[in-house]
Amino acid sequence: MKAPIQHSSPLPSAAVVEPFGRPGRALMLGHVHPDADVLGTLLALGLALEARSWSVVYGGPHPAPALLGFLPGVERYRTLERLDGRFDVVVLTDCPNPQRTEGLIDQARRAGKIVVNIDHHPDNRRYGDVNWIDATAAATGEMLYELLGALRVTLTPAMATNLFTAIHTDTGSFRYSNVTARTFMIAAALVAAGARPELVSESLYERRAPDALRWLGEALARVEVSADGQVGWLALPASAVPERIVESEELVNYPRSVASVRVACLLRELDGTVKVSLRGKGDVDVQKIAAQFGGGGHVNAAGCTIPGPLPEATRIVLDAVRRAVDDRARS
Ligand SMILES: [Mn+2]
After folding, report:
1. Cα(312) to centroid of ligand 1, in Å?
2. Distance 282 CA to ligand 1 centre (A)
3. 142 CA distance to ligand 1 centroid (A)?
4. Which residue(s) pair with 237 in the sheet?
5. How many other CB atoms are found less than 10 A from the CB of residue 177?
6. Is the pTM of this model over 0.85?
7. Domain 5-204, what fold?
8. I need a surface site. Which of 45, 90, 113, 252 has the fewest CB within 10 A?
9. Using CA atoms, how far apart are residues 212 and 182, in angstroms rounded to an integer?
10. What's the gap in Å between 12 CA and the centre of ligand 1?
């Protein structure tokens, strides 16, 4: 067994490009609850390989969310329980922890000659045969743009739309502190290749159901802000608002939007556990807070899952957030 390849700069090395040289059969493997950065990157690469006579299977433990039904090629993405046949290459994108494939990674290792792990999460477990981890990328979408360039792929509007959406969502529509000049240069190239910003925005943010705003109001009425204004949170009991509303709204962005808030939390009760999303604004590292509870993510966006009940979970998380905010104030 060869030692795994480790690579971390913004441009792919020869070893990262190499597995995609000669056509074969590829698996684009997503993780639980795939988002646009996962799906957009897997679809863009898969479509590029198919244009080069590869045979590509797309899928993961959960289906693509209905909200992302506009991504070109997403109808090919399947819920996988068992993998059939052999693969010349297995690709995982935006997946820091192989456990997030719900066991599919183990099957993929047996069925695949080589596992390629492409990600921008700093806490990536480097579980691939080839690991390309660039924590300076705002989205894995930026990295895939560079990979397709290195492969000399001519971008189609379908590939460009997938990558543009990946970058759009991971940067909060080009608003977060992860956005760099490179982000805009890549976005510009993707628009030149046929991605349409207005269609992506409309598809992502203007597809609400008629009753969605009423439910959104219901949820937002529960937002609370600490006495000093620095911590904002939203604790949602299981039946407070329908699941489809929570899934289609980035609810944690609302407490984050309060001027004085430095850390925002969304806590949602689900089947006895509590899913926690944390957002920062650059000074408090929320990944470190999530890591205390076995979670992970980025400096400004992280998450974890902890046991319920909700009031207890809320107290525990807010205590950890308070410590992080106070530690930061002292340093
Ligand atoms: Mn991402």
Report:
1. 30
2. 17
3. 10
4. none
5. 14
6. yes
7. inorganic pyrophosphatase (n-terminal core) (3.90.1640)
8. 113
9. 35
10. 17
Residue 187: closest CA among 137, 150, 153: 137
> What is the number of other CB atoms lying within 10 angstroms of the CB of residue 285?
19
Q: What is d(CA 318, CA 310) in angstroms, rounded to the nearest whole number?
A: 12
What is the CATH number assigned to the segment(s) 212-330? Answer: 3.10.310.30
Give the separation between CA 18 and CA 15, rounded to whole angstroms. Answer: 5
CB 105 within 8 A of CB 30: no
What is the tens place of the pLDDT at every residue in 309-329? 999 999 999 999 999 999 987
Predicted confidence band at 40 (pLDDT cuts at 50, 70, 90)? Answer: very high
* Beta strands at 273-280 and 263-270: parallel, antiparallel or unpaired: antiparallel
Distance 228 CA to ligand 1 centre (A): 32
Separation between Cα atoms, residue 156 and residue 228, nearest integer Å: 50
Q: Where in the chain is the domain with CATH 3.90.1640.10?
A: 5-204
The whole-number average pLDDT for the span 286-298 is 95
